[in-house]
Amino acid sequence: MKIKKFGSATILIETSDTKILCDPWLTDGAYYGAWCNFPPINLDDCDFSDVDYVYVSHVHPDHFDPNTIALLDKSTPILIHKYHQKFLKFNIERLGFKAIELENGKPTQLLGNTKISIYAADDCDPSICGHMFGCVTSEIKGSMQLDSLCIIDDGKHILVNTNDCPFGIAQKTLARIKDDYPKIDFALIGYTSASLYPHSMLDYSDKQMKKGIETAKMKGLLTGLDTLKILKPEHYLPFAGTYILGGSNYLKNKYLPIPELQDAVEFFQLELGKADINISPVLLNFNEFFDLKTREQSAKYTPINIKDRDKYINEIASSFMYDYEVDEIPKKDELLNLFSDALERLAKKQKELNLFEDMNLLFDLQNDEFACINLKDTTLTTINDISIINNYHRFQLDARLLKRVLRGPRFANWNNIEIGALLNFARKPNEYRMDIHTLINALHI
Q1: Pairing mode, if any, of strands 19-22 and 11-14?
Q2: pLDDT tens digits for 361-371?
Q3: What is the Rg, in whole angstroms, of the alpha carbon atoms belonging to the chain?
Q4: Which of 26, 132, 157, 235 measures 20 to 30 Å from 293, CA to CA?
Q5: Are residues 393 and 313 located together in one domain of the fold?
Q6: How far, in Å, CA of 143 to CA of 146, rounded?
Q7: Is the pLDDT of residue 129 over 80?
């Protein structure tokens, strides 16, 4: 079995009889134009003509990129988890591909001796994440999680691809996998935590930003470390975190909480050593591979040149456009009408979350005016002075993107906007509220 690195989470797994491309994202512009690759990827160097299968872990555009998928032959089957919700399946079929849904944790024979098993992050127990996100109802059967992980077994080696699975949700699943596969040869391990924090905070000082960077970095690293402690593979590759922010938000790269790959490995090795766990790290550059048969890689890893990356960001990536920048700028009344129409769905989600309190959701309009939704009674008003408000979450984003997201997920999605750092954010008091970030996803018509 060979493991070849292409993009952030884009890995080609090659057994003696099967080639599986995982989570294709190679073109710049994921998350409405925000996420870009560095080093930049030349698509001419990416030959996927003989790929037998594609595995897509979840619907986020840095794992399922329609522009990259379009490079593949439409006869290539795409393997996904059989989720309760079918939006990933429908999006794949909309591109003209066949989506094959696999039952949770059930090994599926591919070509030759190669098998794949796909697990939902929550192991198809909706109560694990459902109580957290307010989505458990009697109608739900199976997983409500976005993320999945997979096992590839070629009869000689076992590989685990953990993707973006949050450890808090996937812990039970990882333990089950270790029980089923005591000897794991290779694991692909996430080491970052993509969000808007701290690089999108509106009112943070430089000192607060630096503290936020360390907090966010540690969150991602601990997820990877906890995963490694359960799986205890022979080798691991940290992945799914190498991106930069392009477009007008390029200055946010200064505070982007992403460890360098070699620093992530240094942290893991130190902490694993303290626990007397011996695992060998692997670092790969673009188009390089590791061979599990020989336990050797095609070339020694060369770390990213930070000066070259900064130059690329400032001189090239900064000029990239966002998808919505071609739209007309909406008028204030048009936005307020959309807010008003979106309140019904928001109130329904509030009921699911039991979230009724004196908290205000603020949205920048024009000329220092704000749309204000009070969560105590789900009322919409406009205000000019937010200094007199003690409890609020403020969302500042381009009016064109705001219009798109209020119109619904077909046009834009709040979660993707946050991950893409396409908004600026402030909160009072300065406390993270998962329930509010969950609720905001229901604010659309």
Answers
A1: antiparallel
A2: 999 998 899 99
A3: 22
A4: 26
A5: no
A6: 8
A7: no
